[in-house]
Design brief:
binds (3R,4S,5R)-3,4,5-trihydroxycyclohex-1-ENE-1-carboxylic acid, EC 2.7.1.71, alpha/beta, binds magnesium ion, ATP-binding, binds adenosine-5'-triphosphate, six-stranded parallel beta sheet, kinase, Rossmann fold, P-loop_NTPase
């Protein structure tokens, strides 16, 4: 299912998508019975939009990258530099398994994953089985602009960020495409993307 996120408050092919009303939001929040997991490329806005969704739905927000850093007591660039990517991926798999839990009501939360998490077959299967998976996608120009705001993504240090992002996006697309819900976030405010995601979850449930 694909939802184009667009401005004020959102449109696909010129069709406005109305903002979710407070009553719809309350009803939706009651129907959510498992974790909602955001997947997609680095810089697409999983952390930023995830926080907003959690506030709107009154659910806890957890960022997998932050949890990995907390568990390792090290920043992600340091983990990559000292132990390498495979070590980071092992930690990522374990942390996400803990956060998704058994996918029951007890595990209700908004979980923003790191860009590579859904590529791991075990993590992907776990999320597909136990959570509501949302693929947040964006065009390459938007990704390049957004990752440029912070210097904390070690994979982008290995060459030209635009080339790396384009290659990873193509390689990862078939994996991301397995997510239950697909929302495109272009050059639009977070609120527009959050509204699109809520509408998409509402019709998916
Ligand atoms: N809709 C948006 N409009 C404008 N800026 C945005 C939007 N969404 C995210 N951003 C900005 O883009 C940058 C990257 O966003 P964010 O950190 O949420 O991405 P991410 O998907 O969590 O990336 P990663 O996989 O590396 O954790 C941040 O500076 C954020 O404020
Ligand atoms: O896309 C990726 O593989 C990554 C994205 C970030 O969220 C971090 O998880 C890390 O920098 C790796
Ligand atoms: Mg993030």
């Amino acid at each position: 299912m694909e939802h184009e996120a667009s401005p004020s408050p959102g449109s696909s092919l010129g069709q406005p998508t109305p903002a979710i009303t407070p009553v719809e939001l309350m009803r939706l929040a009651r129907r959510i019975d498992r974790p909602i997991v955001l997947v997609g490329m680095m810089g697409v806005g999983k952390t930023t939009v995830g926080r907003r969704l959690a506030t709107m739905l009154d659910l806890p927000f957890v960022d997998a990258d932050e949890e990995i850093e907390r568990a390792a007591q090290m920043a992600i660039p340091e983990i990559f530099a000292q132990f390498g990517e495979p070590y980071f991926r092992d930690g990522e798999r374990r942390v996400i398994a803990r956060l998704v839990g058994d996918g029951s009501g007890r595990d209700r939360k908004i979980l923003a994953t790191g860009g590579g998490a859904f590529v791991d077959p075990d993590t992907r299967q776990l999320i597909l089985d136990k959570a509501i998976s949302v693929w947040l996608d964006s065009d390459i120009d938007t990704l390049v602009e957004r990752v440029g705001r912070k210097d904390n993504r070690p994979l982008l240090k290995q060459g030209d960020p635009r080339e790396i992002l384009s290659r990873l996006r193509e390689e990862r697309r078939p994996h991301y495409a397995q997510a239950a819900i697909h929302v495109v976030s272009g050059q639009h405010p977070h609120a527009v993307t959050a509204n699109k995601i809520l509408k998409a979850i509402d019709s998916w449930l």
